[in-house]
Amino acid sequence: MRLKNILIVVKDIERSKKFYHDLFGLDMILDNDGNMILTEGLVLQDEKIWSTFIGKEIIPQNNSCELYFEEKDIEGFIEKLEKKYPSIQYVNRLMTHSWGQKVIRFYDPDGNLIEVGTPM
To answer: 61: alpha, beta or left, given left = phi > 0 and alpha = psi -120 to 50?
Structure first.
């Protein structure tokens, strides 16, 4: 068995597709009417469909998991982030962990937590 995809819930699938393309270069592989697969295995699921499937409330910014990306030029990434999405909500701005890795954490437009760090 292997892990195939990671699914996140979004309110506006087109807005999210643009966000993940603009910042991370992810492209659409499949659009299945409210369920969109992007490169690198990220799946965007329309919130209305997901709510129907699970029958529970969606809780954005629950901080129970994150999408983790690595970027060698983290300062360049931050410039791009702030230029394209100036109202982004940060969890923490650029910081350096005790082991030397630089990281930034923020929420996507739907409250999914993202971390971008320099390669370990």
So the answer is: left
* Rounded CA separation 9/105 (Å): 18
Residue 44's CATH number: 3.10.180.10
Count: domains in the chain = 1
* Distance of alpha carbon 77 from alpha carbon 69, whole angstroms: 11
Predicted confidence (pLDDT) per residue in 1-50, tens digit: 999 999 999 999 999 999 999 999 999 999 999 999 999 999 999 999 99
Q: Which helix (H) or strand (E) holds 17?
A: helix 13-24
Nearest to 115 by CA among 73, 79, 76, 70: 70
CA angle in degrees (0–180, nearest 5) for 21-111-108: 20
What is the rounded end-to-end Cα distance, in angstroms, of the chain? Answer: 27
Q: Is 47 part of a structural domain of the chain?
A: yes
